[in-house]
């Protein structure tokens, strides 16, 4: 687990993921995060009630990203969960330590919101969320992991709660407030 905020509440372990973190835990874990253009992937094994969740900022590092399909033998210290492809590799490695094969997991994908609606930026900030969501779909497909649910794209951010005991994920999408028109900032000149 690489989360900076984990608290035990009774028997329940509450974890809040910051951007670039992931967590792998058992039935006692409840993992939360807040997403804008970032994406979270949850993986859940129903038989073992083990799950994992990521919070990544970008799909990949780009040209510097290592193309390795097998998590065994990776230098895990060089992987960075800020990037979707590397976060998935880290989660799969930690799940493998718990005897969980990728194909026994059910995946859910969340986030990829547009935090700058109304801005026309071809390939810019408004497109980051869409690229992240589409990359998550492709990465899971490439590992033979079934995606059973997703809540992607749209305007605003999402609050996510993953209950590893049941595999349920609650997502609440929060729209952005209306911005005043240019020059209409409410201030008198």
List keywords for this structure.
189 residues; five-stranded mixed sheet; single chain; alpha+beta; 2 helices; disordered C terminus; 60s Ribosomal Protein L30, Chain: A
Helix percent reads: 10-25%
Order of helices and strands: EEEEEEHEHEEE
Tally of separate domains: 1
CATH topology: 60s Ribosomal Protein L30, Chain: A
Instruction: Walk across the major sheet and give the strand order.
Output: 1-2-4-9-10
- Beta-strand proportion: 25-35%
- Using only C-alpha atoms, the radius of gyration works out to 18 Å
Low-confidence stretches: 67-71, 184-189
**How many strand elements?**
10
* Average pLDDT score: 84
**The first-level CATH class name:** Alpha Beta
What is the structural class?
alpha+beta
The end-to-end distance, rounded to whole angstroms, is 53 Å
Which CATH-level-2 architecture? 2-Layer Sandwich
Largest sheet: 5 strands, mixed
Q: Overall 3D geometry?
A: globular
Number of helices: 2
